[in-house]
């Protein structure tokens, strides 16, 4: 029996964002494929085997939502977006700068009318995951938010004369994608989104204006992109969104509390849950939660960092959950890492054992808080 939004159990009290550190065997196989030493099918076999192991590890730690760890991706966003109709990836001149380090050079651009079709590789990826997860847990699919194309991609002006035209095709493509995942058996989708971080600081707002937009107007467009993309989702499909400030090799991209976009994020988005970063002072306090205006919105507190190995003090985490509960009911709160452990294939600076220690820590705390 499927779980409806009325009796849902996800997002779970102990949940996670989705990506996990790539095993060394998988890293070697990907390098061998790039060098022409193994075939695509040989790589796929190794991916399958490592994902099967990962599924069992997630179950053993007590997680209820299970992902494929994004093991088939190089990036958390480009791999999905490049496989949309009308979008292509390319090697850019520079990468993104993260607090003193820089990513590999990569970007995307819109070269034709944007659409989604049934040969998108992520559908097969999900079907494999679903088969491994079984009926006793929930297979969770993470994909980049439509805002990652709307705001971050280069756009050919001859293809789209204005952003409104692109918005229409983009949200239609996402509606098709969401329905396709649903038809494949998915009941839990997470949209990953770094665009909101630009609204949370003066530096971010300056970068928005440099692109020719006013922050308030772009915020409205980003809200529409989310709400229109998920408007026709089936009643028993849960859609959450992860708002991220950057996560690359244990470095961050931006800072800022949720205040500047709090009314939109907490009162204007039609998602079922929000995964939010609260692992350090860069994210501000819990006061913006006062703008939550629905009793069915769940907020997943990212109080445990995925960037470093040291385990957070349990009592301090519980105190922070209690503080958040001053603005939103315990029933509507959950716990997770602030982000994934490997938003790109390089991964954060901790070991696999330390990664699983973090997950077990979250599960134990959640059991003690929401027993």
Question: How would you describe this protein?
Answer:
The protein has 371 residues and is an alpha/beta fold. The chain contains 11 helices and 13 strands.
Helix/strand layout:
Elements: H1 24-34, H2 40-61, E1 65-66, H3 78-81, E2 85-90, E3 97-98, E4 101-102, E5 107-115, H4 121-133, E6 138-139, E7 141-144, H5 147-150, E8 154-155, H6 163-183, E9 188-193, H7 202-210, H8 215-229, E10 238-243, H9 262-267, E11 273-277, E12 298-304, H10 314-324, E13 333-337, H11 352-369
Parallel strand pairs: 1-6, 5-8, 7-9, 9-10, 10-11, 11-12, 12-13
Antiparallel strand pairs: 2-5, 3-4
Category from helices, strands and their pairing: alpha/beta
Beta-strand percent range: 15-25%
Terminal-residue CA separation: 25 Å
Find the CATH topology.
TIM Barrel
Q: Could you give the order of strands across the largest sheet?
A: 7-9-10-11-12-13
Would you state the CATH class? Alpha Beta
Average pLDDT rating: 92
* CATH architecture group name: Alpha-Beta Barrel
Overall 3D geometry? Answer: globular
Largest sheet: 6 strands, parallel
Tell me how many strands there are: 13
Tell me the quaternary state: single chain
- Could you spell the SSE succession in H and E letters? HHEHEEEEHEEHEHEHHEHEEHEH
Radius of gyration: 19 Å
Helix content: 25-40%
Tally of DSSP helical segments: 11
- As residue ranges, the low-confidence spans are 1-7
Please indicate the count of domains.
1
Features:
three-stranded mixed sheet; 371 residues; alpha/beta; disordered N terminus; TIM Barrel
